[in-house]
Amino acid sequence: MNINKxxxxxxxxxxxxxxxxxxxxxxxxxxQIQESEFQNILTDKNYNTPRNSWTKLVLPISNNKDYQNLMxxxxxxxxxxxxxxxxxxxxxxxxxxxxxxxxxxxxxxIIVTACADNVKFYKYISPQEDIVIQSYVCYVxxxxxxxxxxxxQQNELIVIQxxxxxxxxxxxxxxxxxxxxFGGFLARILIEAGWLCGYYHVKGQEIPEIVNLTDIxxxxxxxxxxxIQVISHVSYILDNYMDVKIQxxxxxxxNIQDSKVTTGMHLILKCQNQINxxxxxxxxxxxxxxxxxxxxxxxxSFLVD
Length: 305
Fold this sequence. Notes:
- InterPro entries: HOTDOG_ACOT, HotDog_dom_sf, Thioestr_dom.
- GO terms for molecular function: fatty acyl-CoA hydrolase activity.
- Belongs to the acyl coenzyme A hydrolase family.
- This is HotDog ACOT-type domain-containing protein.
- Keywords: Hydrolase, Repeat, Transit peptide.
- With 305 residues, this protein is an alpha+beta fold.
- It has two domains: 170 residues, Roll (Thiol Ester Dehydrase, Chain A); 124 residues, Hotdog Thioesterase (Thiol Ester Dehydrase, Chain A, Roll).
- 27% of the residues lie in helices and 36% in strands.
- Helix 1 runs antiparallel to helix 4.
- The protein is globular, with a radius of gyration of 20 Å.
């Protein structure tokens, strides 16, 4: 969804989004956060349009050293986990914008991330060019909102179309948004742990490339102070592709066996050469093997050589 004429977000909305992303991004006062110049005037607050919540964010990684240090890995490639963290934050902002910020300020609406349907990589993300993210609501159900994020470089759709489902709860005044761990932070930790697992599998002889993220689920909220255990497995190999399943569990420090899954996802990596196969040894590993096989075999055709 492209908007030809945009203006910088001002007023309370600008203050809110910059306050939220201040802990995540440097130099927030210099960020370009834009919205559509021509918005639909609504007479009924129970309805809204995608144009009214459409938001554009420009990440200046081409010439800003602070952003380069934040967004790039040791090999000067982009940290996909950081991108997903920013997308999660921006999706929440767009969702609140769609629902009317007055409801948020009165604690009548609480939105949490439920899952990300899919992340598609169309082209290589250049670390020498600015990243432009456009976020907008594409579907609304009775208790859910679907937000799509498109990433561009030089006005061309480069990387990702990300669909996120966020549950929409009304009148839950006892809930406090700041008592839970930010979902984008968990997603970034899982992505980086999964990539490291694949990197270890090829024994550091190659730098795996992330080509797909799928089945991203936020199952349980994580409270401040919870102990988190991250587990990753290389579940399936197809030629030079590998599927890595990653899970985060909340662990009881007094009984490490007492744990519950809070977040999970599958990460598909690509190498230049053939990857050593994995052979399941247990029933649990066999289930992981079948999950990974299903995901890799149903990869979009443009990802498979």
